[in-house]
Specification:
This protein has one domain (6-121): Rossmann fold (3-Layer(aba) Sandwich). It has helices at residues 6-16, 31-41, 57-67, 82-89, 102-114; strands spanning 45-48, 72-77, 95-98, 119-121. The chain is globular and about 30 Å long. It is of the alpha/beta class and 123 residues long. Strand 1, helix 3 and strand 2 form a beta-alpha-beta unit. The chain contains 5 helices and 4 strands, in the order ααβαβαβαβ. Helix 2 (31-41) packs parallel to helix 3 (57-67). It has a 4-stranded parallel sheet with strand order 1-2-3-4, sandwiched between helices.
């Protein structure tokens, strides 16, 4: 789970408890920390914000997929621009959820991405 805003990380981790088969193995608050943790842990799924300190989410996704190609990335961001969403997906990410949809769409998107599907719930 990667977001620089602790309350959002808490909300997302709380939501993920709805899927007991998932376990949050690490949290990061900036881009370099996210890349370091992904390189070390090779998680199945990474929930990643776009707007991060030190290194933005787009670049983080690119670096993570180089060092941990089997990790699936699901962006969770407040950005709703279709161009930005497409740029995020072009990194190789498997999904995108707008932060305003966390409560109703996050678990659906997580399950879809883990099944190998693409999930975009941003509008």
């Amino acid at each position: 789970m990667v977001d620089d805003f602790l309350p959002i990380r808490r909300v997302i981790c709380w939501e993920l408890q709805g899927l007991p088969e998932l376990q949050v193995v690490a949290e990061a608050s900036d881009g370099p920390e996210a890349v370091q943790l992904a390189t070390k842990l090779h998680p199945d799924l990474i929930l990643l914000d776009l707007d991060l300190p030190k290194l933005n989410g787009i670049e983080v996704a690119r670096q993570i997929l180089e060092c941990s190609p089997h990790s699936k990335i699901l962006f969770v961001s407040q950005e709703t621009s279709s161009a930005v969403i497409q740029e995020a997906l072009d990194t190789g990410a498997k999904g995108y959820v707008g932060k305003m949809h966390i409560g109703k769409s996050l678990l659906i998107a997580v399950q879809a991405v883990l099944r190998g599907e693409t999930a975009v719930m941003a509008g």
